[in-house]
Input
Amino acid sequence: MGTITINGKPCAFEGAPSILQVALDNGIDIPRYCYHEGLSVVASCRICLGEVWAPNPRTGQLEAIPRLLPTCQTPCGDGQIVRTDSPKSIANQKAVMEYLLINHPLDCPICDQAGECYLQDYSYEYGRGESRFEEAKIKQPKKDVGPHIYLYSDRCIMCSRCVRFTREVTGTAELCVVGRGAAEQIDLFPGKALDNELSGNVADICPVGALLDKDFLFAQRVWLLTKTPSIDGITASGDNISIEHNEGRIYRIKPRRNLAVNKWWISDEVRYGWEFIHREDRLSEPRRTQYGDQIGTSFAAAFDEIHERLSAIIAGGGKVAALVSPMLPCEEAYLMGKWVRGLCREPAQAIFGVGPAPVSGEDKTFPPGAAPTDPNAFTIRAEKAPNARGVRRVLKGFNRLDGDTAEALEYEPWLAAIKNAEAVILTGNYPSEWVTKDLAKALSRKFVVLIDTLPNDFTAKANVVLPGATWAEKSGTFENVNGVLQAFEQAIPPREGCRGEGQIFSDLLARRAAGANGHGLPRYNAAAVREEMARELQLTEFTTDVHTPHAGSFIESEMELVDL
Output
């Protein structure tokens, strides 16, 4: 292990990392544009240059290296002293900023990058107070480079992050550098469009407003957005994301760095797949069947009918089947299982199954040809359900309580097993159609309770329909395809008239305990449910192995009460 002193702060390091990486790891900010931890180092922007003093290998005396060195490319050496705040380094930073701003347009008020732009930040911190440039600025065109991305060439500072991303991460190489000198610009390779499955990431890594997301263009100012750390709720990847929202509406989803799961990236499927959350036709009120027709009702009346019908079926020795959707977090699967199991007099009266986990094609790893185990590889998962493994884990915990170590029934065996059940409780929450003909046939002449978010072929046929909430509107834990348990917090409140499945099952459990007149039910709290799961089902991993997000989430007070 060696020690290097950066701007007066001693920093320990191992191996031969770059000076910039050690500085960032120790909370020392050095300006940089072209450097990105997930890409190769080109040292082209030159703003990270610093003065370096290194020990002479013969005399051991510190000697100044006669020129400024790029800290992003220079490896650390034991005993080195680095200054990026010296007069010489500061003069370089001002010169670089002046150079980059020569042809940059003054359109910050209308630029989507305003508020999170490195050029703005560094201009304020490292630039000159006034411009000395008097000539006319060179104008570059705006380009439509793909289905999701616009390129504003006149804002580009030629850091080449986007070019390196398409070459090193996706392996598709759609972007390239054309021209030289003042005519140099980013462009598409002839005959190609920026249309790979990870294309949206180039907007994330662009340090200025050159590459912009069409979906977010002129939609919202970034300083009005609240960022809530979350987990991909669409696929089995478990990608770490930030849900950025304002006044109960999501405006964009961006990746969060997690080297063990998704590195620095997310797929376009995850980035843009949230839009169903704000669909106009979402289920927004409880409904029940009366004299052959569905009518709107209240949650209280719907709960009363569910309790009465299921109690009668159980009392008569009938069976109740429950299909737990892999779109639900572990905590909600536990509450659903606890409620159904508590209704039944005998464990055999409850038939649990894991809902279908849609699969589209095969897993796809980037760059092409890389092994999924490669530390630099990124894999898009073919399985389009975030928590099938977590649901199985929870249901297997219930089986252990009943003295049965068998796995929970998968979808097809569950369909065959419910032919003798008189009542079925279904949970959906899929972003697309999921009800199959086999399911509709299996549910014929049964009392059916459906909890879902979007209309489908069965929402008009179920005896009771309860409007649920999407993953962005609640908190919980997902288990990804590699068995990693990750907690996420609520970003936005549920749509008016809807309740999260965790809240619905908490309400049903509390009503059964307090009777039909129970009011003032405690609000669902995922952290408390995790502790209960660990204790009741002996699933200690839910208190020891769950990766929790950072602060800054939409979390309502645990003391609030919800009235039926």
Remarks:
- The first strand starts at residue 2 and ends at 6.
- The domain at 287-357+390-562 is CATH 3.40.50.740 (Rossmann fold).
- The chain has a mean pLDDT of 90.
